[in-house]
Write a structure and sequence with these properties.
The chain has one domain. The protein is α+β, with helices and mostly antiparallel strands. The protein contains 3 helices and 6 strands; from the N terminus they run ββαββαββα. The strands form 2 sheets. The chain has a 4-stranded mixed beta sheet. The protein has a two-stranded antiparallel sheet with strand order 3-6.
Length: 83
């Protein structure tokens, strides 16, 4: 893996950036949060994972955004939204 993607301080990319499978365990993708019954509480992504790929644009680099599970809230059910 390229070390160019490793930027935990966010100096190069403006947001903390990790290599594939190198992010801290408390940072999860939106899909992982949803699987745990959580939502990101309207917050922007806390970090990103960059990965080289042949499919997606931007010169073959794909970004996956990560959210802090410690700041996440439970999902709202339809009944709670209606109340």
């Amino acid at each position: 893996m390229s070390r160019a993607f490793q930027d935990p301080a966010g100096a190069r990319h403006g947001i903390p950036t990790y290599r594939w499978r190198a992010a801290p365990p408390y940072l999860l993708t939106l899909r992982q949060l949803t699987a745990r019954g959580l939502r990101p509480h309207g917050r922007q992504a806390q970090a990103q994972v960059l990965r080289r790929t042949r499919r997606h644009g931007a010169h073959g680099v794909r970004a996956v955004y990560l959210y802090d599970v410690r700041l996440a809230l439970p999902n709202r059910t339809r009944r709670k939204c209606a109340a």
